[in-house]
Fold each of these.
Amino acid sequence: MSLKRLTTVLAAVGGAFILYIGLSYLFAPQATAAGFGLPTWPQHDGAAFLAVKGVRDVATGLVVLALLLTGQRRALGWALAAIAFVPAGDMVIVLANDGAAGQAYGVHGATALAVALTAGLLLRERPAPAVRAATEPART
């Protein structure tokens, strides 16, 4: 598998996955929050914060997919490098609030690593050389 195909698959799967997570927080917030890794999550009036997370995740997925679909691979690499701070921050939040270390490292930490790796691979790609038009005379 070529590097370009690998990074395309990683970015597409990552974008679709975080979009799914965001929609889950919007449509089933209490059920989804239990998997975040914190010992407690907002209830009643505070439950709107779960929708905030859902909107954040949906927007993140849409940015990734939009950059991927428009072929802006270098911009996608930089965007993913910035986005890697989100799951890294989530990991720190879970650990700082007596959350499950396994979920902090295994979910959020692994996600941050995967996003950063995908960003690095995208930024490492080199554009294909321009193809000379058949009607253009060769320069000597």
Amino acid sequence: MPQMAPMSWMMLFTFFTMMFIIIMTMNYYIYIPKMEKMEKEDIFSNKTMNWKW
């Protein structure tokens, strides 16, 4: 099995690194979070907790 030259290893490393960065940025910017529509009552509702001390 022939050995690869060091320059070839460096090119492979940079290629896969760039592909990884491109794919991660695409995943970050493509994702659209689904916002639940909140009614006015839900926004201003105060949920009180009754603690039994």
